[in-house]
Amino acid sequence: MSSLEVISKDERKMSIKLKGVPLQYANALRRLCLNGVPVFAIDT
């Protein structure tokens, strides 16, 4: 049985605990979260 538990959450950060989830799914979730973070660069 798999579960997701929210450990802590605020405006900028969220910590979760995954149990019984294959590593591939946990990594896919991590990649989806990182994909949503805006990134920009300044060329000088």
- Please tell me the total number of domains: 1
The residue-averaged pLDDT reads 92
Element order, helices and strands? EEH
The side-by-side strand order for the widest beta sheet comes to 1-2
Oligomer: single chain
Strand content: 25-35%
- How would you sum up the major sheet? 2 strands, antiparallel
Number of strands: 2
Put simply, the count of helices is 1
First-last Cα distance: 52 Å
Specify Rg, calculated over alpha carbons: 14 Å
- Structural class based on helices, strands and sheet pairing: alpha+beta
Uncertain stretches of 5 or more adjacent residues? none
Keywords: DNA-directed RNA polymerase, Transcription
Protein name: DNA-directed RNA polymerase subunit alpha
Organism: Candidatus Nitrosomaritimum aestuariumsis
SSE layout and pairing:
Layout: E1 3-9, E2 14-19, H1 23-35
Antiparallel strand pairs: 1-2
Describe the structure.
The structure is a single chain. The protein has one domain (3-35). Strands 1-2 form a two-stranded antiparallel ribbon. The chain is an alpha+beta fold and 44 residues long. A hairpin with a 4-residue loop joins strand 1 and strand 2 (14-19). The model has no long low-confidence stretch (mean pLDDT 92). Helices cover 30% and strands 30% of the residues. The radius of gyration is 14 Å and the shape is elongated. Keywords: DNA-directed RNA polymerase, Transcription. This is DNA-directed RNA polymerase subunit alpha.
